[in-house]
Amino acid sequence: MTNEIRTLAERIDTLETRLAYQDDTIETLNQTITAQWKQIDLLTRKITELGERLQDAEANAPGPANEPPPHY
After folding, report:
1. Per the CB 3.0–4.6 Å rule, which of 14, 20, 43, 72 could disulfide with 68?
2. Could you report the per-residue pLDDT of 18-63, keeping only the tens digit for each?
3. Gyration radius (Cα) of the chain, Å
4. HEC states along 4-67?
5. Which pLDDT score is estimated for 72?
6. Is this structure's pTM higher than 0.70?
C-alpha cells in the first residue's frame, strides 16, 4: 500500500506542477488579449476618424473649374 500512496503522491505533485504552469500561461494570455483589444479599439477609432476627415476633405474640395485636362 505504501508504494501505491507514493505513486499517487508523485502523480498529484506532477498534476499540481502542470496546473501551476497552466495558470501562469492563462494569465499571460489574458494580459496579451487585453492589450490587443485596447490596441484594436484605438486603431478602430483612428480609422473612423480618418474616414471622417477624408469625407470632409472630399466634401470641401473645390470641384474642377474651367481647368483644362492634364493632357493639354
Report:
1. 72
2. 999 999 999 999 999 999 999 999 999 999 999 999 999 888 877 7
3. 31
4. HHHHHHHHHHHHHHHHHHHHHHHHHHHHHHHHHHHHHHHHHHHHHHHHHHHHHHHHHCCCCCCC
5. 58
6. no
